[in-house]
Amino acid sequence: MSTTDAKREIFITGLRNAHAMENQALSIIKPQLQRIENYPEVARRLEEHQRETQGQIDRLEGVLSELGEDHSTLKDMALSLSGSMAALGHTMAGDEILKNSFANYAFENFEIAAYKSLITLAEIGGYHTALGVLQANLKEEEAMAAWLSDNLREVTTRFATLSEAGETAKV
């Protein structure tokens, strides 16, 4: 395998992994949105990020298509299932909103790392037309991570206040 072929294979694998990762993100967001009641600002931001995530998936599919490739249905299904299971696991916790907030923040940072790596692969592989898409996706993930970080104190405070008042604090 030539160096060019190896770079292409690594880049395509990374794009497919990112596509699956974004499907996993949707499978994490959707169950949270169905359960949120007392945190409207979190629900609004998750709804916005759900739309962003779908846009990211569409953009990744465009890059793959331009390269004559397709996403990996198997990876998409496997990661979507694992995301659904992770979200389901938090529903049992009395502090579900906090656990979801922690997990969302960690996942956003995982996505940020993945896009930074993909941008590097695009640069060294000469896939310059993909850079705009990858940078747009990275910017959205960084914005979501920043929002989660900036709002963790408020979510935690609201959770504690609702718990103390004997109200539904879970979600």
TrEMBL record:
<dbReference type="InterPro" id="IPR010287">
    <property type="entry name" value="DUF892_YciF-like"/>
</dbReference>
<protein>
    <recommendedName>
        <fullName>Ferritin-like metal-binding protein YciE</fullName>
    </recommendedName>
</protein>
<dbReference type="InterPro" id="IPR012347">
    <property type="entry name" value="Ferritin-like"/>
</dbReference>
<dbReference type="InterPro" id="IPR009078">
    <property type="entry name" value="Ferritin-like_SF"/>
</dbReference>
<dbReference type="Pfam" id="PF05974">
    <property type="entry name" value="DUF892"/>
</dbReference>
<dbReference type="InterPro" id="IPR047114">
    <property type="entry name" value="YciF"/>
</dbReference>
